[in-house]
Amino acid sequence: MEGTLSSSLVCSFACSFYAHSKPPAEVFAAPSRADYSSRVAHSGFRAKIIELRFSIPSNTAERSYAHVCYTSRKRNHNLNTEVSPHRAVSAVRLLRIEQGGAFAGLLSNNGGKALKNEMEYVERTLGFRTRDLEDRDIRLVTDIVGGTIRWRRYLDHLILSICNVEKTFRNMEPLLLQILRIGFFEIIKLGVPPYAVVCENVRLAKVSVRPGAGNLVNGILRKLVLLKEIDSLPLPKVEGDERAKARALATIYSHPVWLVRRWTKFLGQDDAVKLMIWNNSDPSFSIRVNPHKGHTRANVVMMLEDMKVPHKLSTFLDEFICITTGMQAIILAGLLKDGICSVQDESAGLVVSVVDPLPGETIIDCCAAPGGKTLFMASRLRSQGKIWAVDLNKARLRVLTEASKLHNVEHVITILHSDLRTLSVKNIMKADKVLLDVPCSGLGVLSKRADLRWNRRLEDMEQLKQLQDELFDAASVFVKPGGILVYSTCSIDPEENEDRVAAFLLRHPEFTVDPVHRFVPPGFGTVEGFYRSSPIKHSMDGSFAVRLIRSCGASS
Ligand SMILES: C[S@@+](CC[C@H](N)C(=O)[O-])C[C@H]1O[C@@H](n2cnc3c(N)ncnc32)[C@H](O)[C@@H]1O
């Protein structure tokens, strides 16, 4: 069959392949019919191959694709024990993330089911099963997937430089590119012995892409090893005008150029680099102990010691424990599932300190779901008082409802599914305190959200700012005279933080800043009286909050 197909059509075929557990259809690129046949032979399905030849509009070269209709599952599934399972799973997961079908975190509260789905995807994509993942493999997948996504721009620069021919790089099968990225990441950033990396990634490319792909991986990885040995990785120099410097820094520290330019402008080059280094480092987590399940922090510390999970007490929040590694063990031990504690960054906990919920108060949590801050505020109310938890997203509110039951705080929380802006027009509720934790860019949490830096665009910022202003106005309506309004973000961007507050105060002279210094530890309050946590200063996520007080005589 001859013709012209758009790349989006190819993509939609490929997506349908991932979406079905029944015998699927897929389209993939391969230079010869023998390659299609080899792939189908490994697939575990009986299949009919229809060959397509077409050119992609953005790419003048004609390419050959196979449209494979898998007709039924073969009875005996191919178990491939030679391919290292964590590499195979990582490659497929990276492919899915890039195609928008998965998130970066493999850690899941419902580990068993998630893992089973994961392995089914791997089997459907590669055409063979690997042995099941052990705990150690899961940790490796988490490290490799997170790291490879973070370092994508840097790795692609090296791969492209070593391929030498841009066409080879651009025309690479998507799975092959992931295998190369993994190999580069393991050699350069994880320091895995090159022999093992070359050998295993070559084998994976051969059996999962096509036999010829193994040779390509072999050649490219060996060149990389050589360049690394002589300390000659082809990296750009930070020189030239602003734009050239930003491009070089963006490659060396693997961030989008627009972010580098923005941070260089707001923070200066040195702090921008420190921030990028933080974003590329392994994320650290903290857990909040839930007292409503009869546990104390000392209790949970003993459990962590039994589990040999390295930890230290938070110096900023009495309920928090910082964990460097071992989250998987905490999940497997059921500490989250049983509501004994929840994962919450200290920076988010300190926003609750800014709100300072007191027993007996009525609080409206305006953008509440999935409820991290609602639950902490509920816990601080000590069963006296009320929280109205408002959110637009029904699915996320369901998570909040379940979590509030799990944490034994559901009696103080009432869920309200609504657009805050519509609710504010009705003007039916007034509260002592109102928390507005607005949708934001999330630029303060890039170390935990490995893929976020690649998904955010400069254009998003304008839309977000407009939404933040609208929600800020809406939230203010619920504050009673003399009451408190807290606006917060998990962003470090002044345009989402200080600038939004300044614009709000111009529109709402009935509010004034109530400095946060008496609510947060020293070092977190700014001269303007705002709360700001900084990854480079406090080694935690970046977040922001302001506490505003409505004048006693003023009502909306
Ligand atoms: C940053 S998240 C809130 C996180 C939450 N406070 C927590 O600590 O878990 C922002 C939330 O705003 C919600 N949201 C966005 N637009 C909204 C609107 N117009 N009205 C109400 N909620 C909205 C989103 O559904 C999302 O759950």
Tell me the fraction of residues in β-strands, as a range.
Answer: 15-25%
What name does the CATH topology of the largest domain carry?
Rossmann fold
User: Under the CATH scheme, which class of the largest domain?
Assistant: Alpha Beta
DSSP strand count = 15
Rg computed from alpha carbons, rounded to a whole number of angstroms: 26 Å
Low-confidence stretches: 1-28, 52-64, 72-76, 106-110
CATH homologous superfamily heading of the largest domain:
Vaccinia Virus protein VP39
Roughly what percent helix? 40-55%
- How many DSSP H or I helices? 23
Q: Profile the largest sheet.
A: 8 strands, mixed
Bound molecule types: S-adenosylmethionine
Fold and architecture overview:
There is one protein chain. Strand 8 (362-365), helix 17 and strand 9 form a beta-alpha-beta unit. Residues 1-28, 52-64, 72-76 and 106-110 have low confidence and may be disordered. The protein has five domains: 1-76, no CATH class; 80-235, NusB-like (N-utilizing Substance Protein B Homolog, Chain A), CATH 1.10.940; 242-280; 285-343, Sun protein, domain 3 (Alpha-Beta Plaits, 2-Layer Sandwich); 354-550, Rossmann fold (3-Layer(aba) Sandwich), CATH 3.40.50.150. The chain is built from 23 helices and 15 strands. By secondary structure, the chain is of the alpha/beta class. The structure holds S-adenosylmethionine (SAM). The site of S-adenosylmethionine has 17 residues, from helix 17, strand 9 and helix 19.
